[in-house]
Structure formats: C-alpha cells, structure tokens
Amino acid sequence: MNARIRFRSLALGLVAVLAGGTAIAQPASAEDPDPAFISDDFASGTLNTGLWTVTDPAGEGGVSVANGRLKLSVPSGKNYDIWGTNRALRATQAVADSDFQAEVRFTTVPTQKYQTQGILVEQNATNWLRFDVYSTGSALRVFAAKTINGSSTQLLQSNISAGPEVQLRLTREGDSWTLAYSTNGTTWVNTTTVTHPLQANRIGPFASNGSPYPAFTAEVDWFIDTAAPDPGDPGDPGDPDPTFTLDTVTSGQGSITRSPNQQSYPAGATVTLTAQPSDGWEFSSWSGDASGTAASIDVTVDSNKTVNATFIEAQAEPPGEAAFVSDDFASGSLNTGLWAITDPAGKGNATVNDGRLRLSVPSGTNYDIWGTNRALRVTQPVADTDFQAEVRFTSVPSQKYQTQGILVEQNATNWLRFDVHSTGSALRVYGARTVNGASAQLFSKTISASSQVLLRLERTNDSWALSYSTNGTTWTSAGTADHVLQASRIGPFASNGSPYPAFTAEIDYFVDLANTDPGDPEPNPEYSLTTNAVGQGTISKSPNQTSYAAGTVVTLTAQAASGWQFAGWSGAASGTNTTTDVTMDGNKSVTATFSQAQSNPPVIDVWYGDDQIFGARGQSQKWVNILGNVSDGDGVQSLTYRLNGGSPVTLQRGPDLRRLYGTGDFNVEILYSNLNNGANTVAITAVDTTGATTTKSVTVRKDIQAATLPHNVSWGSSTNPNHTAQVVDGKWTSSSNGLTVTEMGYDRTVAVGHTGWENYEVTVPVTVRELGPGAGTPQSGAPLVGLGLHWQGHTTVGSEQPARGWYPTGAFAWHRWQQGGRFELIGNDGSPLTRKNTGWDFNTTYVMKARVESVSGGYRYSYKWWPQDSTEPAAWGLTLVEDDGPATGSVLLIAHHVDATFGDVVVSPL
Fold first, then answer.
1. Model confidence pLDDT, tens digit, residues 490-520
2. How far apart are CA 230 and CA 14, in angstroms?
3. What pLDDT, on a 0 to 100 scale, did the predictor assign at position 17?
4. Which of 66, 413, 551, 603 has its CA 20 to 30 A from that of 689?
5. How far, CA to CA in Å, does 715 sit from each of 247, 720, 724?
6. Does domain 340-512 have CATH number 2.60.120.200?
7. Is 848:825 a contact under the CB 8 Å cutoff?
8. Terminal CA-CA length for the chain
9. d(Cα 447, Cα 444) in Å, to the nearest integer?
C-alpha cells in the first residue's frame, strides 16, 4: 500500500472511529467544523514550502522528506532545547485561533536522555504551548508545558511505554487543551486536560534535545486536522510547483558552499551562499545573479540562476604597532620588569626553565576563575587597542576543571577569560566575561588535543574572536563575542575548580602577532614594602618577600586581635576592606589601624530547655538531639560544643536546605553510647566576627527506661514534647490539642518508643492545615506527612553534621503532595515502593494506621488511612514485604514542609 492510499485509509478509519464514539469526543454539530490548518501526509517527495516554514535556531539541523516521511534531525552536541527560549527544530504553518483537533504520527521513539518530538502551538516567539514525548534515558514520558513571555512551566508529565511508534492527538476547546496518545493508532489514552489562554498563530511538529544534547531524528508520517484529514493529491487542483536550478562559478582560488545544498529549488526558496577563499587568497565580490562584497549572501530562487564568486590574492599587511610585549621565556628566568605575578591563595608557583613558563596550582586549594579571580596568573600592561594575542601551551588539562588560558583585565572585578579546560571526560575551549564580579559564559565548545593547545585571541573594537589549534598550522574558530572592556593588563593563567585538582600550565610563548620578537629583557628594579600596625592586630603579605620586582602586586590582609576591629589603611594604601592590593612601582610603606570592637555577643537559644532528659520513655533512636539557634548582628564566626569538658566539636549552622533549615539553626547530635548514665554537660560556644564569645551549658540526662507495649503518648501531659517523646528535628509544641509544628521546614520529625520494638501496630490522627514554603528543591522534593517504622536514627553520608542519611529504616508510610496527591509505602533504601493516587483535604483530620510484622523472608509492612469522621476500612490500603531492613525500631512522626498536628499516638503489640 503506497503512502497516499495508506493515508486515505487512515482518514476513512479515523472518521469511522469518530462516528463510533470510541475516540475523543467531538463538539456536537450538524456539520463538520472548518479545519483550522491544512493536513499533510508528506507523500509528495518534497516539503511544501508554500505551506510549511522551517525554523532552525542553531542552523545545523536537517529537514527532509523521503518515503512519505518528514524527517527533523538535530545533531549531537548542539543545543536544540525547547525551554525558556524555543531552540527546537520545527516546521510550522498558520493555524486559525479556533477549536481544533490535531493529530501526528511519529514512526520514531526517543531512547536517549532528552530526545524529544511533539506538537508546537505558537502565539509568538516568547509565548507557546508544547505537547510531546521525550526520553529520560531510562523511561519514555508524555509531557506538556506552557511558555509565557519566555518563562516555561510544566503542565503535565507521565511515564508511558511505546513500541515502534507514538501518535499524539491534541484537542483544543476554548482555553482547554487535552492531549491523548496512542502506541498503535487504535487505542487512545487521555492525559490531564490543562487550561491556558493562547492566541494560536502557528502549529506544527518539532524535534528537540536537552543537555547532554544527543543527536535525534523525528520521523513524521502525517500531521493532520481531524476536521479535514485528507490533504488531497499533490497536483490537485493546480499544476506542480515549479523548480529552478542555481549554478555557482568561482574566479580565482576558493569555493562556494550553499545551504540548503540541493540540485534544484522550489520557486521562492532562499539559498545562502558563502564564499570561502583558499589560503593566501581573499574574497572580492559576487557577480552574475548576485552582487555585493559580503562573504555570505542570500539568493531568492525565482528562476534558473548563475552566481559567480571572485577571489583575489591576499596582500600581506605590514605589521602594526604591538599592544603588548611578546615573550618566549627563553632567558631562564621570568622578566619581572615586564610580568607581574598574582597568586591570590599564596600557594602557587611561577617558574621559568627549559624555555617554558610553568604556572602551578596545588591540590585542594581554590584557584577558580569565576566571580572572584582566584587564578594564578602573570600579566603585563596592554594597550586598549585592537590586537592579536597567541599562546602555545605544551600542557593539556585532563582532570575536572584543570584550566589554562588568556586573561584580559580591566580591573579586579571586570575581565575576559579565553581558555581550555577539562570536564573530566572531555576537553573544552571556553570564553566568559566578568562584569562587576558577576561571571557569565560567552561560548563553550568540545575539542580534542593530545600534547599541545594553541590559542589565538583577536580583538577588533569590542569584538573578541577566539581560535584554537592542536598542531600550530590548522586553526579552528572557537567562538566570537561582543563585549565592552577597557583593556589594561593581559597574560596567561592557570586555574582549577571544585574538587580543585593540582595542575601545571606550561607556556612556550605568549606573543602579540604584530611583533612576535620578545627582544632583550629590560633591567628589573627591586623595591621594599614596609608595614606598620596601630592598635592590636597583624598584617600578612602575599607573596611574603623582603623585596619585590617592579610591577609586582602584593596582597595585604589585616587581621584584628580578639576584641579589636580593623579601622582602615593609610600610607601607600587606603580603604576599609581588610584585604588590599599594592602595586610595587617604588619603595612603599603601609599602615593598618585597629580599634577596640564594640559589639554584642552571640545569642544561643536552646529550644527545649537547659536541662533535658533522654530515654525516660524508651531509647527511640541511637542519637540524642539538642536543638537550637544561634544569632549575632556582627555575624557568627564559629560554633562548637564540648561534651563533659572534652575536645571542641564543630557544629554546622543553617540554612543547609535539609535538617538545619533556618538561618543559624544547629543540632547537637550525640550517640547515646557516648553519654554517661545520669547527668552530662554539653557546653555550646559561639564566637562572632569581632571575637565576642557566648557559652551556653545544657545538662543532658541519660535515663533509659523500658518502653513496653502497648505504648501510648498523650501530648496534653506537657507543653514540652521531649517529655513524652524525642524531638529529632525542628520546633514543636505539645498540648491537649496534639503535637504541632511551630516552624515548617525540611523533615520536622519526632521519634516515639524504643529501638527494640519488633512487631507492632501504630495509630495516630493527623491534621494538615497548609503546605509550607521551600519544597521542590533537589534536597526536599514534594511536601509530605507520615510515619517511619523500625526507625533507628539518621546515618552519616559523608562528613556532614548532623547526619542526613535516612536508611537503613524498615519502611516509610506517608501522604505526598505530588501529581494530585498520593499515599505511599516505601521499603528500605527506597524499594520496594507501592502507592495509591488520592488526595488529602486540608483542615480535615485523617487517621493513619501502620503495621510491621515478621513473616517468612522478612517483615510485612501494611498501611491504611481514612478521615477520622468516617469508618475505618477493613482492608489495608498498601502492603509490602521488606527483606533487607532493620529487624526492630521505633516510630518516627514526619512533617515535611507542612503545617501539621499529630494527635495522641497508640502503639499496640502484635
């Protein structure tokens, strides 16, 4: 069956299905609605450019029609993402701003991460809707999003499975949009209907990708309006569209490229011609059916045409005046009369031997060149004019964020960088600008190199063009950017980024191509720098030397003694910043003045009192937690605690988007096993930035009592929840109304009972009034409320304080506000997982009941829930068997980014 017969069979079948009532409901009407756009089955062999407009934002995609398929191809490594800015490769046509039903059949299925194909409905360049399928790399998802004034927001997302094809059907009714999908063309599945006002102007299929930008080809069998699914014969009612030829001729030595590159073109097609001269030649002009001197022109093909490109021999230009002094580092030592070394961390090294300048940064020290310029660098003055700088590196970065390149400075907070760096798996050539201390990428491109990399930077007015070479002969453009900068210094640099690997950049030469001869070095004078302190404090110098070569930049740092503060610099420096730079162009003297600090000491607030008892109602986890907050108007410098007079232990302070949620929050987390029976002393000490100190002593009493079953917790017995349970995280209050979160945040938790419990059932009523702020981050995910079973306590993931690991734990039973709401039961390490999609009404009390019981092969966990004013369901809502979790543990109450109250807890034995 050919494509035309196949498509018409589809159209008749679609009409039959619609008539049978098994597809998406159609508006009631005595007549078929007028089509909103023109259907196309791409059976003519070429794209109908009178109907479709191709948009290729990156200019490197491919659009073709063959075998009755429209193919939209995006290449590997190129950003064709459709988020915020519409970079998708697409073919669109005009669409009426009315109700319609569009259907597309893709004979391709995305398999690699962020390969995407779908339907685009545009209002304009910054407002559109997308309905598509994409791959996560491990799953296929149907997806929809809206973009309003360049800001994109997800509308729907759901996992699906597909065979060799995916079909999408988009139904518009007013401002309502319903997406359905099919994997066989017969059975259709509706997704959620979304509402969004949009003045539709264009519609069509698209192909896109996302980071890491894989190659992808979307094959489109048809794109139709179901009101008129038959596109008609290609030659009916008129004659076929005429096609014309475009011939190109060259005079001299050079070539002409064309885009698109075809043997013939439909009438009205626009073809881009680009003249490329051979080495030693330059492009002169166009003639024939084109004119002008620009190397790239557009030709409209409305008849058979011939275009001639003329190339002439290039005339060598005499060398101009150099903007800076070239250096091949052949003298055996660095010319410090020319170059100034800047080493912000004071741990790097700049040496010259064997005709190489070596810039070495050590492991574990921050030499990042982003925001603040921490790179190790040697620079010299440069004229604020056009120039061509070239550097040869005989080193190639191989570890993550090892970097070497060219730095052009205006001042300490405004500069340009052009470099090569390693991502750990690839080598990239890169450009970035920094304006008033804020850095932004200009371009980035993946390259390959083995033993050397050469960079060539050409400045023309405010345009900066970077090229690179791996052999010194063949040069490739890396990128061009426009940026206004008053250049004052230039030179090579070496840097790193987290995890801050060691790296040595080897520079063979750094030259101005207008005059590559370094000449003879000038005599290099030496100058002294004297420092004086008034008041109590010290001054450090970097580099710390007895004398300095002319032009050396020395960083001075003032450090006030305890109870004193830095007041300002005088002499050859000024200002009140504790760190200042002095350029050595003569003998200099600098004075730092310190004054006695006037400040209030830090305030330490221990939330549950200065005398706390743990274990009185059972040891509910392996830790005790002393919770609180520290604040100081001058800023907190450090926070530590000592247990029973032992060594100080550093405490982390919030916010960390996890357990330490608020600014200044702390959590003294101590193992029960490290406490003495009876009274222990925990001394918490805070020091602010002026040296003022506060110490708060807390008596921690270890008194572990048996917690037998049954076990009941009545919150009305005390306003301090630590008297009846153990607060693990957050601020809570208890009363006859229950246990209530007073400050919402990440995983506010309370542990109940004993870590030795095995088989039990827990029942607790819960009321949620609202969702709190802060959810949705990578650390937090969706808000939730629920229980942990067989809880033993947090585990450390790395060196964090407090610990943040949630496993091993028997199971979690909770309600999560995600995709409309879902109750979930999750085993140890997040598996197995079972869930049921249903909502939760705010200000309604629900009863949560969960059970753990030993069975053959592990432990069975069961979970049910119901509104308190209704009857308890007989059956469990969710169950699972966990074979890898703890054999015993307590109960954990969890309120994650919600305003919640837990009622009295009843734990019964099984």
1. 999 999 999 999 999 999 999 999 887 665 4
2. 11
3. 34
4. 413
5. 89, 9, 7
6. yes
7. no
8. 68
9. 10
Query: Phi/psi at 828 (nearest 5 deg)?
Result: -60, 140
Instruction: Measure the CA–CA gap between 447 and 470, rounded to whole angstroms.
Output: 9
Q: Residue 31: pLDDT band by 50, 70, 90 thresholds?
A: very low
Boundaries of every domain in the chain: 52-225, 243-313, 340-512, 526-596, 603-909
Cross-strand partners of 544:
none
Q: Which residue has the tokens 């357990």?
A: 659
Looking up tokens 């011609």, which residue turns up?
273
Do 52-225 and 340-512 show the same overall fold?
yes
For 700, the token pair is 């921690």
What is the rounded CA–CA span in Å between residue 473 and residue 571?
Answer: 52
Query: Average pLDDT, whole number, for the chain?
Result: 90
CATH code: domain 603-909 is 2.60.120.560
* Cβ–Cβ under 8 Å, residues 899 and 770: yes
Q: E strands along 519-587, which residues?
A: 526-527, 529-534, 537-542, 548-549, 553-560, 564-571, 579-583
Instruction: Name the residue type at position 132.
Output: D
| Paired tokens of 213 | 């930008």
Measured CA to CA, the distance from residue 210 to residue 904 in angstroms comes to: 50
Find out whether 846 and 865 touch, Cβ atoms under 8 Å.
Answer: yes
Tens digits of residue pLDDT in 687-708: 999 888 999 999 999 999 989 9
Token couple for 236: 């009916």
Q: Do 177 and 191 touch, CB atoms closer than 8 A? A: no
Give the distance from CA 200 to its chain's centroid: 31
CB 767 within 8 Å of CB 845: yes
Statement: residue 23 has pLDDT above 50: no
Q: With beta carbons less than 8 A apart as the criterion, state whether 393 and 418 touch.
A: no
* Cut 0.70: pTM above it: no
| E-only strand ranges, 744-844 | 748-752, 760-771, 784-791, 811-816, 822-827, 833-837
Are residues 725 and 713 in contact, defined by beta-carbon separation less than 8 angstroms?
yes
Contact (Cβ atoms closer than 8 angstroms) between residue 689 and residue 702:
no
Residue range 52-225, CATH number? 2.60.120.200
CA separation for the pair 710, 599 (Å, rounded): 54
Are 528 and 586 a contacting pair, CB within 8 Å? no
CA atoms within 13 A on the CB side of 880: 20
Residue 70 identity (one-letter amino acid): L
Number of CB atoms found within 10 A of residue 831's CB: 10
Q: What pLDDT band is residue 233 in, cutting at 50, 70 and 90?
A: very low
Query: Is the distance from CB of 315 to CB of 281 less than 8 angstroms?
Result: no
User: Residues for the chain: how many in total?
Assistant: 910
